[in-house]
Automatic annotation (TrEMBL):
This is BEN domain-containing protein. InterPro entries: BEN_domain. Residues 88-189 form the BEN domain. Signal peptide: none annotated. The keyword Transcription regulation does not apply. Keywords: Coiled coil. It comes from Araneus ventricosus (Orbweaver spider). Residues 35-97 form a coiled coil.
Length: 194
């Protein structure tokens, strides 16, 4: 009896293992196909990774080049700034003659670039705003004896300097700029009750 039970169990186990093998064999074809598909995808990903790595290497190389150029530009800027400081030190002591007056070259260098504003800045440097507010370009009969006339030599030098610097500005344009500056100073004096 015991022998029969043992044989029966062996047959059952054998059938069970056969069934498992059958099931495994059925899925093997699908498994191979899946593996091939995964391998193909993996190859594609590896190619993409390689492309990205190459791009990254190019970007890093470009970044290093940009940093190098930036350092060069920074050094050039510092050197230029140092040179300008040295030049300014030299210029600060220099004087420029306008008629009977002499003015610091450094102040002249700070005058604005528009010709009419440049004229105004020069008049401020040569005469001062208070003198300008009490002065005229030319004396006329209607003016009182208290009114000052600006030094003709200084005015002529200013006009010559401005016409040379701002060609083709005419003498009439420079005179108009001087009158405009004087009018502004006169009005400012009236407003402030000087």
């Amino acid at each position: 009896q015991h022998h029969k039970v043992s044989l029966k169990r062996k047959h059952e186990q054998s059938d069970f293992f056969k069934a498992i093998r059958k099931t495994m064999n059925k899925g093997s074809d699908n498994d191979c196909t899946s593996c091939e598909s995964l391998n193909e995808k993996l190859k594609q990903k590896n190619v993409e990774i390689e492309i990205l790595q190459n791009d990254l290497a190019k970007i890093e190389s470009s970044l290093q080049e940009t940093k190098r150029k930036y350092k060069e530009m920074k050094l050039k800027y510092k050197e230029k700034k140092r040179q300008m400081k040295e030049e300014n030190k030299e210029v600060q002591g220099e004087m420029v003659k306008f008629g009977l007056k002499t003015i610091p070259a450094a102040k002249l260098a700070l005058c604005r670039t528009d010709y009419s504003k440049y004229v105004g800045d020069l008049l401020d440097i040569c005469f001062g705003r208070e003198t300008l507010s009490e002065s005229v370009l030319k004396c006329s009969k209607s003016r009182t004896s208290k009114t000052n006339v600006l030094d003709e030599g200084t005015i002529n030098d200013i006009m010559a300097h401005v016409m040379e610097k701002f060609q083709p500005v005419s003498i009439g344009m420079v005179r108009a700029a001087i009158r405009q500056k004087l009018n502004t100073c006169h009005k400012s004096k009236q407003r402030n009750g000087m």
